[in-house]
Predict the structure of GAF domain-containing protein.
Amino acid sequence: MTFEELKPKVTEITSNSVISREEKLLKICELLSDSIDYYNWVGFYFANHETKTLHLGPYVGALTDHTVIPFGKGICGQVAVSNSNFVVPDVAAQDNYIACSFTVKSEIVVPLFVNGENIGQIDIDSHVINPFNEDDERFLEFVNSEIAKLY
Ligand code: SME
């Protein structure tokens, strides 16, 4: 499925008036992971700005021990500080990286802004090297902007 085809499906989920925000986030994880073959782990982390930690939210994919990540640590922690997208074509080339599984070869993290504040992020791991391009970034920015409307 193309990103353009996926966009209305994302909006369908976010505008569902029956299910909770948590359920919407999980459904978005499922939609993305089911629709894009190189999206092998899809999840959300949310920031606690007082403790400067990220906390795992809804996700699909392999179980992870990394339920709490300090700001600055790993790809996710760096995005909590930089407020910028982080595309990692090859995780083996990263020094500040938290490995979840040896099957993960690449990663993309896109911050989630609500009223200009970085409240969390969508994190996607892939089992292939260098699968992500600017279309992924624009699409995931769209996904997060739709989610931001729920806050
Ligand atoms: N690899 C991430 C940790 C989270 S897992 O991908 C689920 C990182 O370096 O921040």
In short: Strands lie at 41-48, 53-60, 68-70, 86-88, 106-114, 117-126. Residues 41, 64, 66, 69, 74-77, 97-98, 100, 107, 123, 125 surround methionine sulfoxide (CB under 6 Å).
